[in-house]
Amino acid sequence: MSTWFQLEIHGQVSNLDKVQTPGDVADLKHLIRDRNPNKLATVDAMDLVIEYNGKRLQPMEPVPVSEPDKPLLCRAYPQEDLRHRMQLQLLKKQQESIDKQDQLLQRIAPFLSNAMDKQWSLEQNSVVSKQEHEEFRQAVFEYYGMADNHHLKHCHFLGIDLNSHFITIAHIFARRFRFNEWQPLDDVDSPENVLILFKPIERAFDHGRLCFVWDQKHKNYRIHVLDPKLFRTTIAEEAQKSFSSNEYMGLGKILNKTFGDFHGEFLDFLTESKPYKTCMTFHCHRARCEAIRKRWIKEGDLPEIDTDDAWSPEDNHDKQLQELIQQWRKGTQEALLETE
Question: What is the pTM of this model?
């Protein structure tokens, strides 16, 4: 029995040809290579791409019976050209995945910000006066029980008091996102939407390298390090990116601890006041999706943030928000499978 095929090299298609039907596609590639030694002088047999009815055939597949009116198409690429084409296909799939996630993020954002314009864009009018900034800081320190000490502030992650030079007020739902109104929070500068953190820790939090997961039993947030590299990194190593060694060396032995030493520990709050759960859980979902994409964790990790307990019950939009986030996660996982 014969198999009809056409050979395409650099876009040029040859006349119809046929060979005795071999056992599988790998054998067919070698047959075609042997029949065209001049045309395929620089092409390895296994670099040939065999297609039938628009579908690419795998080496171990049986060769389909083809006729002159429906021949197999054999594309020949030099090895570098083939690698380049595969890279382009991978980049295209990754871009499609990014576009799909971005569309879902734009649907999720209004439930947090109630913005009518494009969400996730930089807020052009986010400049606040020095007085407003100071009022905001004072409100945060009062909420977390730190208003009495003007020089030392308590880091919720490290659990120690630091000179105010070393700490920052870290927004959970970031200031740079358009944020017009979100009930029951007044605005992005609500004390319930911030944490007080050592500056290097705030940077890791903002980049999604770690997150804080609600623990219903203990009614507190548990530290979860997502980035394996950060797990082995000491606090001092991260501090070098923000301060000179002369500045932070006085902080003591805690600098020698790794982020992994804090994994599974709870944030340290001085009073019963804590961040708004919906803010924190939304950050966890964004961080988890990114961590799955980077292969830091597996799909299905952090199941705690998928429970009703992780969300603030008074937020009327929580259920709808969770449904959209599940769509976002599903799209992320499908994209990962496509690009593996």
Answer: 0.60
